[in-house]
Design a protein that fits this description.
Helices cover 73% and strands 0% of the residues. The protein is mostly helical. It has one domain. Helix 1 runs antiparallel to helix 4, helix 4 crosses helix 9 and helix 7 packs across helix 9.
């Protein structure tokens, strides 16, 4: 006999698999297109400007998502964009590079906000409290939705949980990439020579890797808390403007 706990686990894994599609596709495709617009078509040549989800699946990232979902702390990622920042030159090159390096981060947070608005349209403003609790506590369970919104159809509950899973991943990855992309941008801007090989070697140097881990450890949780609260407040503001109760 299948227990409620087993059903909840299966639903969580399946929901995060669906959420992975949008989370891995849109931010990377957006960044690739922005980079190509500014002169760096490296990611575009690898097919990462496509909105086809199959182009963005990372085997390791997807596998870790499945495994971590079993533990109750889902985390997964798609294909990382391939950028040669030294292809971006001309007037305002530094500004263009900054835009490229944070374009996927911005898209993660915008999509998280859109997800909040979709949830408000389905469940009302009350959903904000539940989403905030789930993401901050990492207690990702569709049962909380089902118990809170007993009057809502089960299909909408399932859709709502997939959206929450997507918001969760968008926030987590947005925070991680904020720190990692800031490190990469710094290495680009302080580089003496426009040499892609030297830049890549600098990125993969153990000292830089260790510094990135330290920054994630120190600033990851405060930044996650801050982003969740900002998105929740923006979602509340938009919901009120749309007349959602």
């Amino acid at each position: 006999m299948i227990s409620l706990k087993s059903v909840d686990l299966i639903i969580r894994i399946v929901s995060f698999m669906f959420a992975y599609v949008s989370v891995s596709t849109f931010p990377t495709a957006f960044r690739s297109r922005i980079a190509a617009y500014f002169g760096d078509d490296t990611s575009q040549q690898f097919g990462l400007s496509s909105f086809n989800p199959l182009c963005h699946i990372d085997f390791i990232g997807f596998s870790i998502l499945l495994i971590s979902s079993l533990w109750g702390i889902p985390l997964g990622w798609g294909q990382a964009p391939f950028n040669n920042p030294f292809n971006i030159s001309g007037n305002f090159a530094r500004i263009k590079k900054t835009i490229v390096y944070f374009s996927d981060v911005v898209m993660h947070f915008i999509l998280a906000l859109i997800g909040i608005i979709i949830l408000e349209l389905i469940f009302g403003l009350k959903i904000l409290t539940i989403v905030r609790y789930m993401i901050l506590s990492r207690d990702m369970s569709h049962m909380l939705l089902a118990k809170t919104f007993v009057e809502v159809h089960s299909l909408l509950i399932a859709v709502g949980f997939i959206v929450i899973a997507a918001i969760y991943l968008h926030v987590i990855l947005g925070v991680i990439y904020t720190i990692l992309n800031a490190r990469d941008l710094y290495l680009v801007l302080v580089s003496d020579a426009e040499d892609p090989l030297s830049y890549e070697l600098s990125r993969t140097r153990f000292s830089n890797f260790f510094i990135s881990l330290m920054l994630l450890f120190i600033f990851g949780e405060p930044l996650r808390f801050f982003i969740v609260n900002v998105i929740a407040k923006l979602g509340l503001l938009v919901g009120i403007c749309l007349g959602i109760h």
